[in-house]
Design brief:
By secondary structure, the protein is mainly beta. Helix content is 3%, strand content 50%. It is globular.
Length: 356
């Protein structure tokens, strides 16, 4: 795979010593063209089955799910419906999928069940209204515990959920805020949420999952990161391993963007062992002299590695980096970190189809 390495300084042995990028294996199917997406997207990777579920909103009031074979990139099933802002998560053993979306000011969760793996076929059980709201996100941990968050009336809400017969817990108000994202950690007892408070500050909270399932807010830890001009697009991801079960490491990390007055900074905060260890780290520190247009960062937690991707506009060029002249494109760059925030010396360009 012909990825461009953005060597910010020449010190390969230092990067290997960190042990972050030393074992990256390039994907056999690095890019899959699904469909035009004008709005939010979500992606889930099936545990134990090399199958991806991608959801997109078309910007015109409809969402779609594409089930994709990982090695070939082939779409094996697609469904759609009316609604906005979708997000998707797999049940623990990939025999079910939950899709959250907003329609008519109400948050819905659709639960789909696997009827056949070859050919792949997920059948809708029911479209379940949960509560008034929008800007939702949904997650399931490796042992099948589900969690949903959304905002309504300037308040961030969350509930636990179970499937089989779909059953959400009572909605629980977390705090005043917007743009929440949430995870159910693989330790089986912790939920973590991030959101932006009314002052634009980035908030991270951990809480008792069992209490949440009983309709009670019981926080373990709360962290506040002051803004420069208003945090946007916070995303959270946690350690995943289907073999862990209860007692798994509760590492997680958060990424968000903040405007420093001249460009967007992508900030990452790391929580090894479930406790925020410091930060934020500026992920795109080498590009702050370049133009940015909404980097919209996303994050994935891959056992002992955290991977963060964001967009970077090269209009105007970035002297001193690999792109030294304007090429009028918006590239997608990825950088890898350890669970504690140690990083490599390079970025990877992801969107090869778009770039020459």
């Amino acid at each position: 795979m012909n990825l461009k390495k953005l060597l910010l300084f020449v010190c390969l042995t230092f990067g290997m010593a960190l042990g972050v990028d030393a074992q990256i294996i390039n994907a056999t199917q690095p890019e899959t063209n699904i469909a035009p997406a004008l709005n939010n997207t979500g992606l889930a990777i099936a545990p134990n089955v090399d199958l991806q579920a991608a959801t997109i909103a078309d910007g015109f009031g409809s969402w779609r799910i594409y089930w994709i074979d990982g090695p070939t990139g082939t779409t094996v099933q697609a469904v759609g419906g009316t609604g906005f802002d979708p997000d998707i998560a797999y049940y623990a053993n990939a025999d079910a999928v939950v899709l959250g979306y907003e329609n008519g000011g109400v948050v819905y969760v659709n639960d789909y069940y696997l009827t056949s793996l070859s050919p792949v076929n997920y059948a809708l059980n029911a479209a379940n209204p949960v509560a008034p709201g929008n800007h939702l996100n949904i997650d399931m941990n490796s042992i099948g515990r589900g969690i949903l968050c959304w905002e309504d009336g300037g308040v961030v809400w969350a509930c636990a959920l179970s499937i089989g017969a779909f059953a959400p817990s009572a909605p629980v108000p977390i705090a005043a805020g917007t743009m929440p994202d949430v995870i159910a950690l693989d330790d089986g007892v912790t939920a973590a949420i991030t959101y932006v408070d009314p002052g634009g500050n980035l908030m991270i909270e951990t809480m008792d999952f069992n209490a949440l399932a009983s309709g009670i807010y019981a926080p373990f830890g709360i962290w506040n990161f002051p803004t420069m001009s208003g945090y946007r697009s916070p995303r959270i991801a946690s350690q995943r391993n289907t073999n862990f079960g209860f007692g798994a490491p509760d590492d997680f990390a958060v990424v968000a963007q903040d405007w420093n007055g001249s460009t967007d900074e992508v900030h990452a905060i790391f929580a090894p062992g479930g406790t925020v260890s410091g930060g934020p780290i500026v992920v795109n520190s080498a590009f702050l002299g370049c133009t940015t247009v909404d980097p919209n960062p996303v994050i994935a937690h891959n056992r002992n590695r955290v991977q963060i991707a964001c967009s970077q506009d090269y209009t105007g060029g970035c002297s001193g980096l690999w792109q030294t002249a304007p090429n009028f494109e918006n590239d997608i760059l990825m950088k890898s970190f350890s669970v504690g925030g140690l990083t490599s010396i390079m970025h990877e360009e992801v969107n090869l189809w778009q770039s020459n």
